[in-house]
Design goal:
0% strand, single chain, 53% helix, 149 residues, mainly alpha
């Protein structure tokens, strides 16, 4: 399974982000491209420990059991629910969000697993740095496929 801690994977993701433009349209979902970039950036903040949304009741009840469904080689389902704290509804500036996300991804990769947050994921609970690296890659890959890159 791919991980954002792998420099090759990070380079691939950044190149795909560079293929987006402000007119990119989603194949599914409601977010505009700039909102998707801001959403992914907010998810990076959680993994980096810059934000610590509380765990919801559903995550506390089934999050741990759902880990095997997420941490595998299968693609994420379309239109899956998201963490409420990183749901982006307001209009965003495309170039600013694209550059912000790329910088966060590169910083996360360069900082390495030892700089991952120890705060629990809002749904899955406690994750190892390896799980964070794989989860970040899978989440980014999912949203880039959403915008056909």
């Amino acid at each position: 399974m791919h991980s954002i801690f792998d420099e090759y994977c990070t380079d691939e993701i950044v190149k795909r982000i560079d293929k987006l433009n402000e007119h990119s349209q989603p194949k599914w979902g409601k977010m505009a491209v700039a909102q998707m970039l801001a959403h992914c950036s907010a998810f990076q903040d959680i993994a980096m420990g810059n934000s610590s949304p509380p765990r919801g009741l559903l995550g506390k009840v089934v999050g741990r059991m759902a880990k095997p469904i997420f941490f595998n080689d299968k693609p994420l389902p379309l239109n899956m629910s998201t963490i409420p704290a990183i749901l982006i509804a307001d209009k965003k500036h495309f170039e600013r969000e694209r550059e912000r996300l790329k910088q966060k991804i590169i910083t996360f990769q360069e900082n390495g697993p030892e700089k991952c947050t120890s705060h629990p994921h809002p749904f899955f609970g406690k994750l190892t740095p390896e799980q964070w690296g794989k989860g970040i890659f899978k989440h980014l890959d999912h949203h880039l496929k959403q915008f056909d890159v």
